[in-house]
Design goal:
This protein is an alpha+beta fold. It has one domain. It contains four helices and ten strands, in the order αβββαβββββααββ. It has a ten-stranded antiparallel sheet.
Length: 133
């Protein structure tokens, strides 16, 4: 029996996936909306750190690491990539890596006027959207 197990272990393909961070963003603005109201607020540094968004890639799969490792499906269109949660919980839209490199070449004053991403979360019968860089 021991020889059979050893044989199987030797010839089973071993798949090791490395984890790659494909996007990290720091939110600056939060918009909460429900059927009765909408509220926009600028985040403090502490809140920005708390609500940071992280997307990772393991093998061929993408995950919303900052939201419980929900699996994401990337959809690219032009200069944008939308990472859509398979659970329907929300999505993150950001610039492609090439577009982000162009953004980084812009003068700082211009960068500060724009956002690099937004993260949209469905929250019961409302939503929360974060905008950031």
């Amino acid at each position: 029996m021991r020889k059979i197990i050893l044989f199987v272990l030797m010839y089973l393909p071993i798949v090791v996936y490395s984890t790659e961070v494909v996007f990290e963003g720091i939110p600056l603005k939060k918009i909460e909306t429900n059927e009765n109201s909408s509220n926009t607020s600028l985040l403090t540094k502490s809140q920005s750190s708390e609500y940071r968004v992280t997307i990772i890639k393991e093998g061929e799969n993408y995950y919303w690491a900052s939201r419980g490792n929900v699996q994401l499906v990337p959809i690219q269109s032009g200069f944008y990539i939308t990472f859509l949660a398979v659970t329907g919980a929300g999505y993150v839209r950001t610039l492609t890596p090439e577009a982000r490199n162009l953004f980084k070449q812009m003068p700082k004053e211009e960068q500060e006027k724009q956002f690099l991403y937004f993260e949209h979360l469905v929250n019961q019968m409302g939503s929360i959207t974060y905008y950031g860089r």
